[in-house]
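Model it.
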Amino acid sequence: MLYKPLLQNYSMSLNNNTISLVPTLDGTNYVQWAVVMKAFLMSTALWAYPQGHVNRAEFSNKKEDRERLPETKKDEIHTKQAVFDKKDGMVMGHIVLRTNAMIQQVLIECTTSFMM
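Modeled.
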């Protein structure tokens, strides 16, 4: 188990170094930025999130259906929501950090990476 923290630290360091290869989007370099950002997100297994291929688990809109769900199912949905929120939040953070201040002001209103 000693190797797991070391591997996590190496992985985090690798991601931090790799993200520095993504240029800052300034409005004039979208094509270059998009190609490199896509490659970065693919390398971190997060590319499916901004593509909209991963959906957040949701409860039924009907109150009766929600009330009938067993607690184990509710817990499962909450767990899936937390995983989605964490990973999608990581994508959003990466995107916002690699854009200039003017673009960040627009992106900050987005609630998912797919909206970006």
